[in-house]
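Holo model, zinc ion. Inputs:
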Amino acid sequence: MTPASATIDAPRVGIHLPLPFGLRRAAKRAGEIGAKTVQVFVDNPTAWARRKSPPRGLAEFRASLAELDVAPIAVHASYLANLAGPDPTFRDASLDVLTADMAAAREYGASIVNVHTGSHRDTSIEEGIQRIAAGVAEVLRRGTEDTAARSPDLVLALENAAGGGWALGTTIEELAAIAERAAAMGVPDGRLGFCLDVAHAWGAGVAMDDPDAIDAWLGAFDRELGLRRLEMVHLNDSRSERGSRTDRHEHVGAGRIGARGLAHLLTHPRLRSVPFVLETPGMEAGYDAINLERCRALIAGVALDPLPLAAFQLSRRAAASGPAEDDVEAKPRRRTSRKRTTVKRTAGSNPTPRRRAPTKA
Ligand SMILES: [Zn+2]
Ligand SMILES: [Zn+2]
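Output:
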């Protein structure tokens, strides 16, 4: 097996790294499978409560990843955060959880925090865009006010959406409108970036299986936003129909998008410096290594082997959560369960986040 770094002129490819079995084991696994970049949850992605202190072993985790040349580190923010919604209570909680994830990201040495653009909840696209931009400005302002955690290099990256449940950010035009509004509020371009989730773009109707359509998408992104603001690609195949506005991730090259489109992205000359992160099924069942290897094959121009039937029958319940709790202080507070119930009823962009968490990031 050839690690991606040994391949000349290849982008950094890695995975969403599960942490529930401990940071030491996670770092070891990143090395074993040759991940060159990783994304993590710093806490339970479907809860509001945030740990009060960093998990044990974080310094060693950072040191191990640095030694393994795993970079950049990205943090996927809580699924519950919705900067686009109209409900003030939900919005405050979203700002708080995202601020906490940004602060934790600094502890992890991360340079990117990606968050879903969110749902305008049947108000209007215009109002939703306004609220996202104001939310971004607020979260970044809070981050820089905390002098102990000052880190101007930490970028908040908005992730494109498949489009279900009044989700915003399904088109480049919407992403550009958010960027423009945020800039007008004083957000520096360098602090607000974007993440392309290939499966989400597919769900939103973009033909990610077609090299010409991919080039057109990248060209439009470059014109509207500038490719340097594309912080990360989530290289997920999809088991959903194109344009279905649904999002079900699939193994690399084994879904409806397929090898041709994904290979085009992985070998795209304009994406050489963009980290690629896999959020594919079965990370804890050995498919982390298999899907990374499939990416290397695509970069090398090698045809992919078919996957066994078992690959498509994996439990959707495998834990893709943050690091395990390791002290009493880190236990969720009482109000968590109440808020969680509220969210289950109101979150439009992601009606069943807990069940889908493993493959929906
Ligand atoms: Zn997704
Ligand atoms: Zn995501």
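The chain has eleven helices and ten strands. Strands lie at 13-16, 38-40, 73-76, 112-116, 155-159, 192-197, 230-234, 237-238, 249-250, 276-278.
Archived with the compound record.
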